[in-house]
């Protein structure tokens, strides 16, 4: 499995940081704050389904933005309810 590029990691991180909501990625029994660029760097790989947990005052907008940026970089994502 190969890691994703720096551009994707930075764009995902910057997108998450535009929102007040908490955005946590669940991957490989890890729970990583998507606003942590180091956490993303160590977590994101291709060919995996990522689960995102989004809670906060702007969660609807944050979910949509995260879906768009993950799909843009070919990363499968689903959201926890």
Structural notes for this entry:
- Residues 7-71 form the HPr domain.
- It comes from Cohnella pontilimi.
- By secondary structure, the chain is of the alpha+beta class.
- It has a single domain, classed as HPr-like (Histidine-containing Protein, Chain: A, 2-Layer Sandwich).
- The chain has three helices and four strands, in the order H-E-E-H-E-H-E.
- The protein has a four-stranded mixed beta sheet, covered by helices on one side.
- The chain is globular.
- The mean pLDDT is 89.
Give the secondary structure arrangement, pairings included:
Elements (H helix, E strand, L loop, with lengths): L5 H11 L5 E6 L2 E4 L3 H7 L5 E7 L3 H14 L3 E4 L2
Helix pairs in contact: 1-3
Organism: Cohnella pontilimi
Pfam families: PTS-HPr
Protein name: HPr family phosphocarrier protein
How many separate structural domains?
Answer: 1
Q: What's the CATH topology label?
A: Histidine-containing Protein, Chain: A
Helix count, DSSP H or I runs of 4 or more residues: 3
Enumerate the strands of the largest sheet in spatial order, edge to edge or round the barrel: 2-1-3-4
Shape, please?
Answer: globular
* Rg calculated over all Cα atoms: 11 Å
- In terms of per-residue confidence, which ranges show pLDDT below 50 for 5 or more consecutive residues? none
CATH superfamily: HPr-like
Largest sheet, in brief, is: 4 strands, mixed
Q: What is the string of helix and strand elements?
A: HEEHEHE
Return the average pLDDT rounded to an integer.
89
CATH architecture: 2-Layer Sandwich
Tell me roughly what share of residues is in helical segments.
25-40%
Portion in strands: 25-35%
- Given the helix and strand composition, which structural class is it? alpha+beta
Work out the oligomeric state of the chains in this entry. single chain
């Amino acid at each position: 499995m190969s890691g994703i590029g720096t551009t994707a990691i930075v764009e995902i991180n910057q997108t998450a940081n535009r929102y007040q909501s908490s955005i946590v990625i669940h991957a490989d029994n890890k729970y990583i704050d998507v606003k942590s660029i180091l956490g993303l760097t160590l977590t994101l790989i291709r060919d995996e389904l990522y689960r995102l947990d989004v809670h906060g005052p702007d969660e609807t907008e944050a979910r949509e933005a995260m879906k768009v940026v993950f799909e843009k970089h070919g990363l499968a994502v689903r959201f926890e309810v």
